[in-house]
TrEMBL record:
PANTHER family, alphabetized: CALMODULIN-BINDING PROTEIN CAM-BP15-RELATED, CYCLIC AMP-INDUCIBLE PROTEIN BP74-RELATED
Official protein name in the record: Calmodulin
Organism from which the protein derives: Polyangium mundeleinium
Pfam family, one: BP74_N
InterPro entries registered for this protein in UniProt: BP74_N, cAMP-inducible_BP74-like
Domain BP74 N-terminal span(s) in chain numbering: 2-114
Signal sequence interval, chain numbering: none
């Protein structure tokens, strides 16, 4: 059963929804929200340049099969959600190689119900 989580980044305004299908990752996300998990709290995954219904307002989403959580990551995959939206045509080349996105300032805000 899939679960959906919303995260924010740099300024706390943008809200981006991810879909998690793996039970261990869903449990990890819930531990982040409860405050139990304090290390691997940032979101990373491979972007797919296509909108999905559960993530309104964005022209891309994260592939649920590639989503994970991290403590520290390399700079080459860091970007705000808004910057990525504005430069989506450049993503997956020199900007965000391999379509991997790891917004350093990402933090889960809440779990959301689909629909």
């Amino acid at each position: 059963m899939a679960a959906y989580f919303r995260f924010t980044d740099t300024n706390g305004q943008s809200r981006f929804v991810i879909e998690l299908k793996d039970d261990a990752k869903i449990a990890h996300a819930r531990r982040i929200l409860s405050g139990e998990e304090k290390q691997k709290v940032h979101v990373l995954g491979r972007i797919i340049k296509r909108a999905v219904p559960y993530n309104p307002g964005w022209s891309y989403h994260l592939d649920p099969n590639t989503i994970d959580f991290f403590e520290m990551a390399i700079e080459v995959c860091d970007s705000s959600a808004q910057y990525l939206e504005e430069h989506l045509d450049e993503a997956c080349g020199a900007f965000l190689p391999g379509c991997m996105w790891c917004p350093w300032s990402s933090r889960l805000v809440d779990e959301v119900k689909p629909g």
